[in-house]
Structure formats: C-alpha cells, structure tokens
Amino acid sequence: xxxxxxxxxxxxxxxxxxxxxxxxxxxxxKDAKFIGSSIGGAKVIIRDALTGEILSQxxxxxxxxxxxxxxxxxxxxxxxxxxxxxxxxEAVVNIEEPRLVTVEVLAPVNQPxxxxxxxxxLWIIPGKDIRGDGIVxxxxxxxxxxxxxxxxxxxxPSTVRLKANVVMMCGCTISNGGLWDAEKIEVxxxxxxxxxxxxxxxxxxxEKVNTFEADLDLSQPGIYEVIIYAYDSRTGNTGVDKVNFxxxx
Length: 249
What we know:
Immunoglobulin-like, elongated, signal
C-alpha cells in the first residue's frame, strides 16, 4: 500500500509541476513572404534535442502576411512583421523544467521537388511563452514545375514550347517588372539527349505571370531530359525541376 501511495504521489507531483508552454513557429520564404495555407503550408516537428522525443508537431497555416509590412517598410528592432492572420503553428508543450528543443520545418510541404528542411535549436522554459513573430525559420529557393513537355511524352521531331511555372517559396507571383521581377531572375533549360548535354535554352515570361517559356528544337530523335533551373544572383535563391520524354522519328 505504501508503495502505491509513493508512486501516486510521485506521478501527482510530476503533473502538478508541468506547465503548458506555448511556442509559435513560422516559415518565411527568403526574399519573400510567409509560407501559408495557399501553398499547402509547412510541416513543423518539435523534438527534445537530447532524446529525439517528439513534443509537438503540426502544420503551419494562415495567410502569407502583409506585403507592405514585410517587403516595403523598414524593419525595426522589436517590431513585428507578422499580423493576426499571418501563417503560424502554435505548439503547446507541457514541461517540468527547461528543455533544449530542435524545431524542424519542412516547407513547402506539398511541393516535394522544392521542399527543404530548416531547423534551429533553443531552450524552452516552463510557462515562458514565445509568441509574437515567434521562431521564424527562413526557407530559401524557388518552386519550379515543368509544365511542358510532359513526363514520358512521345513527341515527333519538331520545335515545341518549353514551359515552366516558377514562384517564390511562399507562392508569391513572379512577373516582368513586378515586386518579384522575372526579368532579373535567370531561368534556363539544360537539354540532354541520350545522356549528353546538347543545348541550353533561356526561358522568359511572356503573357502569363510565373510562366517561363522558350522554343525547344527537338529535331533529333532520342531520349531527352530537360533540367530547368531558376537562379537569382542577388539573393542566392535557386530552384530546379526535371522532365524526361522521348522524341520518335
């Protein structure tokens, strides 16, 4: 009986001293806005840094944020760049003492060819919430999707239109002369036939925002692979997608 009483007292003491602690986590695209619901959000995993135990996990959701506040206004110390609608994941963990945690973000979670992992570590302290902007992890890159030719398409020798959709990691629009200026982003198609590189094709935005295009000479039969990359020398943002197809005589 005494043993049971001791165990009960110990468990009660553990629960009694555990305190719920809130941690806000956000993912922000490099040189752009927050990653939110419109692009599918981001996966967040919070682990004990020593044991690997998962303390909380979930998906970042909400808006990409206020463009003027994030991209145009000067950033001042202690001034938030997130508002009430800005995408976030709000974790609540029960801890009895300070714990060093690893915060890992996979973003954008629904774009496997562009998804990257960003992480950081910090101490969380019982009852000491981290709110406001919270922990903001920067997500570098571009989302690149090859639109045409299609995967494993069979094509007669001809000139076809090479197309790729390119957006910021938050889904923000890239257009000629826009806030994210297509004319200042290098987008190229590296064309390989039967495993050998045969040409490099520059792509540009013409009629439709985010859509980079170029004519592609496919006069020679073979098995083709096209690697389309986007690169911004000002920020270091990069992105890649690939497509394979066949040109038959």
